[in-house]
Amino acid sequence: MAEAIHPGPNMMTERDALLCKLECPGGWKKFGCKCYKTSDMYQSWYKSREFCVSQGGDLVVVNSKEEMDFIGRSYVYFWLGATDAAGEGTWRWVDGTVLSLDNPSWSGGGPQGGGDKNCLWMAWEQSQYKWADESCETRNLGVCEQNLMK
Asked: Which of 3, 14, 131, 139 has most Cβ atoms within 10 angstroms of its Cβ?
């Protein structure tokens, strides 16, 4: 009986390295193993998310300070992929992971708006980009991402 072969950590690392060498589709910018582009219109958080999904991605989930710095250098005032619309005060990224309320990226030390500000956007504050909660109906650009690792 033949033994099943399972990819080991080195095979996975090699595959990941090859995937990261893939190019992004036209109109997308590459950073690490992800591709980014902005929505083409100023629109609500929900409409911005619909646009991203229609392009094969979703609103951006910020996973590191380096990614946030890249996004901040590339785009101006935009929606990020997080909301607390499903439960006030429980912020989740569009991939389902919880967004910490004590993350230093929050403007003012955390969300400020209460029940009418349920979507996350990036705002310029004191010479740096910070996260802020805003009404989901505010018209803004969205930053979409595609992960080359999927």
From this structure: 131
Look up the pTM and report it: 0.82
- Residue 139 inside a domain? The answer is yes
Which residue, among 95, 129, 88, 96, has the nearest Cα to 112 in the 3D structure?
88
- 73, 76, 77 from 55: Cα distances, Å: 22, 20, 20
The boundaries of the domain holding residue 120 are 28-147
Asked if 118 and 84 touch (Cβ cutoff 8 Å), the reply is yes
- One-letter amino acid of 131: W
* Both structure tokens of 18: 């090859």
Q: Are strands 141-147 and 78-83 parallel, antiparallel or unpaired?
A: parallel
